[in-house]
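Obj.: predict assembly geometry.
Materials: sequence records (below).
Method: joint structure prediction, all chains together.
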Amino acid sequence: MTLRHSFQTALTGLRTHKSRSALTILGIVIGITAIILVMSLGEGAQKLILGQIQSIGAKTIAVLPGRQPKGPTDIIATFTDSLRQKDLVALERKSNAPYLDKLMPIVFGSQNAAYGGETYRPNIFGVTGLFALIYDVYPEEGRNITEDDVRSYADVVIIGSKVKDELFGNQNALGEKIKIKGRNFKVVGILPEKGQLSFLNFDEIAVIPYTTAQQYIFGIKYYHRLVAQADTEDHVPATVKDIQRTLRISHNITDPDKDDFSVQTQAQAMETVGTILNVLTMFLASVAAISLLVGGVGIMNIMLVSVTERTQEIGLRKAIGATPKDILTQFLLEAIILTVVGGIIGIALGTSLSLTISLILSKVLLLSWSFSFPFGAAALGVGVAAAVGLVFGLYPARQAALKNPIEALQYE
Amino acid sequence: MALIDVTGLEKTYLIDDVATPALNGVSFAIEKGEFVAIMGPSGSGKSTLLHILGFLDKHTAGEYRFDGKKIDDYSEEDLARVRNRKMGFVFQSFNLLSRTSVYENVKLPLLYSDLKESLWHERVLEAIESVKLSHRVNHFSSQLSGGEKQRVAIARALINKPEVIFADEPTGNLDSKSGQTIMEILQDLNEKYGHTIILITHETYTAEHARRIVHILDGKISSDKKVERRAQADHFIK
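Observations (raw structure tokens):
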């Protein structure tokens, strides 16, 4: 029998058993759609989060007060007041950290802010003029915090878009005064809508000079964080070492295990987050793999039934001259056609669902989400479906093809 | 040289490890162009004999030569090829593909033959015409009466112009009128076209359409006689 006729015979076979073919295809479609959707969304989420971390800049280094826990019994977050002004002075000295380009202390905490009858509780950020440069957020209206503001303990504030909406609604906010902890702060700038960016919602912050924040809002002498930037990405490791050395001298520490501060880089953060996201994606993929497996069991059932209930047909075909090879080819082709059709539909459906979701995320929820097609998942899905279809279609077909024609013909 | 030649043919079925003999040393020969009826009560082994003769089943002992060649020397592929080109089968239960047209059913053996495809269409129509079903070509087999189904099965058996047609109780599921038609066709195929026909039946009247009757009892030939007064059906193929 020529391949063309085998193909036609297989197609005819599938067409005469429409609902069974459709059910088999459905099983394949569900499995493949699920795996593509999950893998594609997982990859998108990973890109989104890593991209956000990256947007803060790979040159950025954060110095945190307190000790990193060394084991489960270690008490964390001791020495939370360890970062002081003398550290700032020491680090700013060029000889201590030659590649250190920008350095900004931060103090933060939430406080009520009031305007007229409205109150809102934003996150207060005490920073310097470098804030906009380091975080890449510039006021949409008004101006930035300046070094003068910092020096003069100025009562000025830049507010996030949500803070503005909550306190002022549609009214003009620039130049108005809001009350934070009993002091009147003049609104000098309003930030554009930014949304959540790397664990920080820029819409819900109020930015003021750190000197004012330390003195009048929080009443502290230390910093919650130092944010630094190396002049180039390549100098990040050296700068980390310079910071550690300088701070140890400043804090009279000789044993690095007794550090009362820790230094983190964006690269480390990305690595950590990347690992977590990978685990998450793998978890989701295994859920999808289970649905693929369930789909596979469906295919398996239908192939078994399909071949068993057609044993008589196989017997007849043998009686009129089909060789075992002809029979096998027919069922092989039937299985291949089912898997290919199911695979194509599954890939198309999974891709379009994933594309739709990513469009909603990027256009409606304004996340910087990018769609990506998971080639590996698609190949895996189609491969598994094909393998299941072939094995469970071919095994009984082979059994039937090798029977004496009369046994197959009289099979009930 | 006889077309079919069996010597000491035996067939034993193993059912739950118990050996059950179905054929117990059958020896006979059938020449080209014969019309033989094999008769016997149910369980006598007549169907088993037909299945072995038609390569649908394998014997367990003895020798079977088809066309002068021992069938042990045929490979699976050879057996399939001989079934396709030299044999035609008509079963009691018709065994047509359901939800498939008369045309496609009759064409089926051609798929496994090496006849040029350009000749198929004409060949199929010719075979359907010979059993007078031209008006049913595109009907599904399920839409036909029992007699018509059996005529489709005969057309399918004829399509490759076989040397021998095996008919296993072809009239068993039919009313007497339809059965008569089937016998007319078989007789015509034998007389006018020289097809060898081997028929299985348990009805004496049906068997008497043949020229020779072989009786099987308990897996052995109990008699092998020429038919003295042959039942002559009207000629179906005029």
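Conclusions so far: Chain B has one domain: 4-226.
To do: check interface contacts against the pulldown list.
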